[in-house]
Fold this protein.
Amino acid sequence: MATYFLHIEDYMLPCFNKKYFGIDCPGCGIQRSIAFLLKGEFVAAFKMYPAIYTLILLFSFLLINNFYKIKYSNHIIISLAVSSVVIILTNYILKFI
């Protein structure tokens, strides 16, 4: 099973924005970050795409909330979504500085 994760990079999609315009998009690095997570390289995953952990929390919470209704779930979802967007945009801006 470990050999499967070692070759996951062969199946990654290219960033069309970077390919055709030469500029990174806000999502550049998320596939490689997921590949690092699958390999167990958590720090490298964060360095590649800092919003990966807030996005995992957001999607996990959305999945759990479908099965179990959680009190104040709207506030939690909005907080996780806003924090993810802030981290994504901050990282995107810092790439150009």
The first helix runs from residue 2 to 6. The chain has a mean pLDDT of 88. The CA atoms of residues 14 and 28 lie 9 Å apart.
